[in-house]
Design brief:
The structure holds 2 protein chains of 2 kinds.
Chain A (H helix, E strand, L loop, with lengths): L1 H19 L2 H17 L11 H19 L22 H14 L3 H12 L4 H8 L6 H20 L1
Helix pairs in contact in A: 1-2, 1-3, 1-5, 2-3, 3-6, 4-7, 5-7
Chain B lengths: L1 H8 L5 H6 L5 H13 L1 H19 L7 H41 L5 H31 L8
The chains are: A mainly alpha, B mainly alpha.
Chain lengths: 159, 150
């Protein structure tokens, strides 16, 4: 289980970063989720679903707790978006990465998280519904709206 | 037939996302295929969304590697074990101290004066220990340089 959890760390961190807007806070959220899971080894029931959506739900809940406790001005989103770093200064792959990163930052958190869950982590619609606690029938429409918003943000960023 | 024609004429909207994700039924896929054959707007949108999906999938949205997470988990294990260790040690000491005090207080062979004397000595040690501990805790809480590595 530890090995599987370590493999989920990167995706969980990406999700937490999109929700919290800060990579350091996101790492704390993921570590807290690891602590929760490892301190209660029997809490995961493989019969009820895959480990990945279950763990992502724990990470997401941890992020929401942190957001509730956060005071205005606590977040430093600089770690997500660095406008001083122009695309011309970066290599090709970094440029593409930065473009996506900046465009995602322009979206509201609910749109960011569904895109990360599907396009970055490759979760199925049923698994996404499980993580977000929504009906599986609404995943497709919500994801489509999020993708259209991302497309718009990318076009705006490209101008 | 007429309703089928009307369906084809309408844009397929969110079904485009379901299509590129492979989450549609065969019938729904056919509907999107037929629509995109005749609607350039939806065809272009489908290809753009597919490209964006690929780009997000290829992006590095987390810079933290798998080894770092493994280290973090080891830290969590060490922390949990350490916590349990301290709990057992303190619990055991308190229990032993409680039994010892009870035995000492109820022992009829020891005189009251001796009991008071021993109680004063141990009480003094306990008071000094608590005082030092309290001071250390206050210092630790208020020391703004505690995270500075030398």
């Amino acid at each position: 289980m530890r090995q599987e959890l370590a493999q989920l760390g990167g995706g969980a961190h990406a999700l937490a970063t999109q929700l919290l807007g800060n990579a350091d806070d996101a790492a704390d959220a993921v570590q807290d989720a690891f602590t929760t899971v490892l301190s209660r080894p029997g809490s995961y029931d493989a019969g009820k679903g895959a480990l990945r959506p279950w763990f992502m739900r724990i990470v997401r809940n941890r992020c929401l707790d942190m957001l509730r406790r956060r005071r205005p001005g606590d977040v430093s989103p600089d770690t997500l978006h660095n406008p001083a770093q122009g695309p011309e200064e970066l290599l090709d792959d970094q440029e593409r990465y930065t473009r996506i990163h900046c465009a995602l930052t322009a979206l509201p958190p609910d749109k960011r998280e569904i895109i990360v869950l599907r396009d970055y982590m490759d979760l199925s619609y049923a698994e996404i519904a499980d993580v977000l606690g929504i009906a599986s029938g609404t995943v497709m429409s919500r994801l489509h709206r999020a993708r259209l918003a991302l497309k718009e943000a990318l076009e705006f960023d490209g101008k | 037939m007429a309703s089928n024609k009307r369906q084809i004429d309408q844009h397929v909207g969110e079904f485009l996302s379901g299509y590129i994700d492979g989450e549609l039924t065969q019938q729904e896929r056919q509907r999107v295929d037929i629509h995109c054959d005749t609607c350039a707007e939806c065809r272009v949108l489908r290809d753009e969304l597919r490209e964006i999906r690929q780009e997000v999938g290829d992006a590095r949205l987390s810079e933290v590697g798998e080894d770092r997470w493994r280290e973090m988990m080891d830290d969590t294990g060490v922390q949990a074990t350490r916590g349990i260790g301290w709990l057992l040690l303190i619990g055991g000491l308190l229990l032993a101290a409680g039994i010892g005090i009870y035995e000492f207080v109820t022992d009829p062979s020891v005189e009251l004066f001796a009991k008071l004397l021993v109680a004063a000595i141990y009480g003094g040690f306990a008071a000094l220990f608590i005082s030092v501990l309290r001071q250390r805790l206050i210092e630790r809480k208020s020391d703004k340089y505690k995270d500075v590595e030398i």
